[in-house]
């Protein structure tokens, strides 16, 4: 599909299949995208090794970490069956092995076991996990030193708000974890912060949170809360279009300046991923495709996504993941760049589609067009454009 984009110095045409720009509407690019992986390569394997958590976060989408089921950790027999299933499929490489929970470090022995056993049969490019950073013992330290996994650490800001959301004393423990990582020059981590109305009630603005993590000198991202607890929902959570465009402008400059510890616009992120790496999103979430990702629950059963572990499973996943089932998405020019969390849709957190599968509204076409316009303007300065393209890889988020 060709999208006409007007600028102050001419009209351009964006091919939303090949993600290329041209001054001619007849331009066609037949180069291959990077969607198809070689046989024997899985993009991602996600394993729930701990259906238990040592915190009780007020906005947790996973019912305190157990996804509505009993608190337990995966046993070694289940792990062996999962390993055998992966190996029997002839998998030669896993690009991303994500060991998840609950709190995964509550089952640190199995964390190590999966890495060691799978590595005997196939190549693992990257090991990742999400942790609350409260478990730091000699076994965790040894694992970090030996395998150097990428960590996403949950920290919602200063103690007054973090402990209110996650439990008294949790901020001190998580900060201790982060300080330990910095003391050993461990830079393979980022902070994930959730912004809530509790922040607002305590007079902590988004800007203050950005400053807090900037001064901490860490990689971080800040996201607004999604929760059925209306007390936590941020007032005026959805930024105005002009504010979102300003955020895009700031984000472009941050990429050019290689300010890699800055959090950039998700809209710009999706556009750059598509344009630079020629990656098409055929569905709202391509991770749900079993040919890309395999996800195992704590009992060894396979699910389409970690958000559907335990009692959270839903029969609507595949229906809601199909862009063709929504008339406004079916013929949208930017559908190949569009990502929408299907779990958020089903749980009623999406601002685009509600839990009944009814389209609400979407500003992505306008915002993505704005991104491309700014890239066109930037193209007049080849040095700055080159920096945008070459520096972007430093901003790619994984966990």
From TrEMBL:
Pfam families named among the record's database cross-references: Radical_SAM
Keywords: Iron, Iron-sulfur, Metal-binding, S-adenosyl-L-methionine
Keyword check for Protein transport: no
Keyword Iron-sulfur on entry: yes
InterPro entries per record: Aldolase_TIM, rSAM, rSAM_sf, Sulphatase_maturase_rSAM
Source superkingdom: Bacteria
Molecular function GO terms recorded: iron-sulfur cluster binding; metal ion binding; oxidoreductase activity
Domain Radical SAM core residue range list: 39-257
Record-given protein name: Radical SAM core domain-containing protein
Annotated organism of origin: Streptococcus parasanguinis CC87K
